[in-house]
Amino acid sequence: MAGGLIALLDDVAAIVKLSAASLDDVAAGASRAGAKAAGVVIDDAAVTPKFVEGVNPKRELPIIQRIALGSLFNKLVIILPVILLLSQFLPWLLTPLLMIGGTYLCFEGAEKVGEKLGWIAHHEKETPAAEKTTDGAAAEKKVVRSAITTDFVLSCEIMVIALNEVAGESLTSRAVILAVVGIAITVGVYGVVALIVKMDDIGLHMAKKDSPGQQKFGRFLVGAMPKLLALLSVVGTFAMLWVGGHIILVGTDELGFHALYGFVHHLEGPVAAIAAIGGFLGWLVNTFFSLILGAIWGGTVVAVVIGARALFTGHKTSGESNAVAEAAPHPDQTQS
Questions:
Q1: Which of 100, 116, 246, 332 is deepest in the core (most CB within 10 A)?
Q2: Model pTM score
Q3: For residue range 33-67, what is the model confidence (pLDDT) as tens digits?
């Protein structure tokens, strides 16, 4: 009896050790995967507050909560099963899919830089202020739907980038790690977004306190919010170019075109050998050239898109002009 009990306790201890090791593996995998998705996460945090601009302050947090739940649904119910099936049965598709996502990131980043510098026209459709300030359920539903649609694209990038970091794990491990990453990133992003959105309200509340110190800090919070949003937007743009460029850099190497990756790796070598700071300097070199590649790659795609858009618009305008000319009465017909 005692021997059986000891054997049972040994089995339980082994299961506990195995579970602990599995949890460590999940935590390590989630950490690696989440770090690689940082560029998209920053941009997500910068984009989302714009959806509640002009909304009744009492509805800001409920709207953000609905967007966060929609984001979780996007990641866990729609995206996760699809990319897991692809990784299990069509793993060769992951690199091309990742490069498509990287190209989208480069395009978005380059387009934002071009708009900021005034090289290209800003084309985002603004939501009318009257529509945003309406307290009706229909207007709020439209804002939430628009935000969740935007989130879907960013969530796809986050999950595919994360999957690429744990592609060598078992199917179960991949599923658990990606679920953890999806939940953690969603909670983190929308928690930060909620804090940013309510920062001015917190500041105004503190500015009305009797304490001069609280009043000063409250005014600081109110004044800091626009600057914080601007900083997030800049950092998010450069992070998109860096992450997208790195995806393209690694992807071209995996597809057999080794020149770009080989060039950057060659430049990393000398600085990476420097004691103590070599690792950081090597990362800095790789990040710098990934950023440059992302800007060039994204700028090229932006130019192609603008050209195609202009060509399509030109054809459409020409067609409309011809239709008007054909519909107009001929002078001879008018005289008769």
A1: 246
A2: 0.67
A3: 555 555 556 656 666 666 666 667 777 888 888 98
